[in-house]
Design brief:
Length: 194
């Protein structure tokens, strides 16, 4: 394994163990390199965290592109998977890391926030495809995305999830069910339930 990959892997292990409170000395011990060597690859902890986030954002883009290109999924399932996709790398569903990142590393959080606010091309494409096929009714995609982003931002509030005894995955599933199904029953559904 190349040295930079070994350092990155060790950083991920440190984050999983200590959150973002690890020191570069902790990381150098775990990676089995001197701090001088570590700083030769990453000039600061902030640069390392930024690298990890950029890597995760690229993984997210690749995963979302894979979902969109799957021929075995219909547009509804593609949309559901895109909207419920939670990165498994940096942070994943460990909300503590997102709080630490937002609070202590604002420049690195800005990378995440920019991704959350701007990376919606695949979702738009699937929505347009579904609307074009008549599977989805015509909606304002920008409003739908803003609703989802707003819900996501509220869901990362750890206290709310804890109070409601829900995981982030469960909460996202509920949001998607409401966004895709709405709350008003269609006439056909109402008649079937009678």
């Amino acid at each position: 394994m190349p040295l930079q990959e070994r350092i990155v892997q060790a950083a991920i292990e440190e984050i999983q163990t200590r959150g973002l409170k690890f020191t570069m000395a902790d990381l150098s011990r775990r990676a089995g390199v001197s701090t001088k060597t570590l700083y030769g690859h990453f000039p600061s902890k902030e640069a390392l965290i930024g690298h990890l986030i950029e890597q995760e954002i690229q993984d997210v883009r690749d995963s979302m592109e894979t979902i969109v290109n799957r021929q075995d999924l219909d547009v509804t399932e593609k949309l559901r998977r895109l909207l419920t996709y939670v990165p498994s790398g940096f942070g994943g569903t460990d909300l503590r890391l997102w709080y630490e990142l937002k609070r202590y590393y604002p420049a690195q959080w800005a990378l995440v926030d920019a991704c959350i606010q701007e990376e919606w091309d695949q979702v738009r494409a699937v929505l347009e495809e579904g609307m074009g096929k008549g599977v989805f009714r015509r909606v304002n995609t920008d409003i739908l995305i803003q609703m989802y982003v707003g819900a996501w931002e509220q869901l990362i509030n750890r206290q709310w999830l804890t109070r409601n005894n829900m995981t982030l995955d469960q909460a996202l599933d509920a949001v998607i069910d409401i966004l895709l199904g709405g709350v008003v029953r269609t006439q056909k559904r109402q008649e079937e339930s009678v």
